[in-house]
Write a structure and sequence with these properties.
The protein is built from 12 helices and no strands. It has 274 residues and is mainly alpha-helical. The chain has one domain. Helix 2 packs parallel to helix 6 and helix 7 crosses helix 8.
């Protein structure tokens, strides 16, 4: 009588460890991580040198915009690469043989991506502390430590939403060049659409990424206004368009597409630029 082999249940913690290693083993992600750290270090040094001019433009928590500005897009690409490259390099085939329950693999990827984003966020916080203290000391000024929780939540909320959008697009498209192109060009195209008249502008305002809509909500609160239903509606629609729909379709494809199938090919015009 032939014995039936039952797949060994893989612990979720082991899946998380395996997905974490991919950020080190994926050469592009590792190189980009090192590059991001170098860019953040240079931005910190630059902020120290230009501290007197910097505090004229922003103070306290608002100074966080500097490290976030130089790392947000790079962080999104770091999150995209391990997700898309696994399909391009047929690594998904091995992964799904070890763990056939694909939703657990996706959950592990999402958790690791969140960890990467939070690590970058903490590095940005550290950069803010360093250039604030060192810049003030170097120029004989008083450091600007004014902390506003509303601005802090606005920054981290928009940052994490952007990373989430990058992850869901990567899960949906499974192609690095196409995912990066849509993530970077999509918001720009929506801004451009708003230049073609009142109706296109209204349509674009409802299709913007949830991170942009969240910043509008916080800006309204900072101005002493109560965010109306339109702002919350735009935030909700943006979250559905950029996160919920790509995630739902991406999960469906993840369950129904064979691991050895080719990912969605990027147009030649896209691969030529990336």
């Amino acid at each position: 009588m032939t014995a039936i082999t039952v797949p060994t249940r893989v612990r979720f913690s082991n899946l998380v460890k395996a997905e974490s290693r991919k950020y080190v083993n994926t050469r592009a992600a590792l190189v980009l991580s090192i590059f991001t750290a170098a860019v953040l270090a240079l931005a910190t040094i630059g902020a120290i040198a230009a501290y007197p001019d910097l505090i004229k433009a922003a103070t306290g928590t608002d100074l966080l915009f500097l490290p976030l500005a130089v790392t947000s897009i790079l962080t999104a690409v770091i999150v995209i690469l391990p997700v898309t490259s696994e399909w391009a390099q047929r690594g998904a085939l091995t992964t799904f043989v070890v763990e056939p329950r694909r939703e657990r693999v996706v959950a592990a990827k999402a958790l690791v991506s969140l960890g990467v984003a939070l690590a970058v966020w903490m590095a940005c916080q550290l950069s803010w502390v360093v250039f604030n203290a060192a810049g003030a000391a170097a120029h004989g000024l008083e450091a600007s430590w004014e902390f506003h929780w509303a601005r802090w939540f606005e920054f981290i909320g928009a940052f994490l939403l952007d990373v989430t959008v990058a992850f869901t697009l990567a899960l949906l498209l499974r192609n690095t060049a196409l995912t990066v192109a849509i993530f970077m060009a999509g918001p720009i195209m929506l801004e451009t659409l708003g230049l073609f008249g009142e109706i296109p502008a209204k349509v674009a305002s409802w299709l913007k990424t949830p991170g942009v809509s969240l910043q509008k909500i916080f800006s309204a609160q900072a101005g002493g206004q109560t965010p109306d239903a339109t702002l919350w509606g735009q935030f909700t629609v943006g979250a559905v368009v950029w996160i919920v729909v790509p995630l739902a379709i991406g999960l469906w494809l993840n369950h129904h597409v064979e691991a050895n199938e080719s990912p969605i090919p990027a147009p030649t015009c896209v691969t030529g630029f990336l």
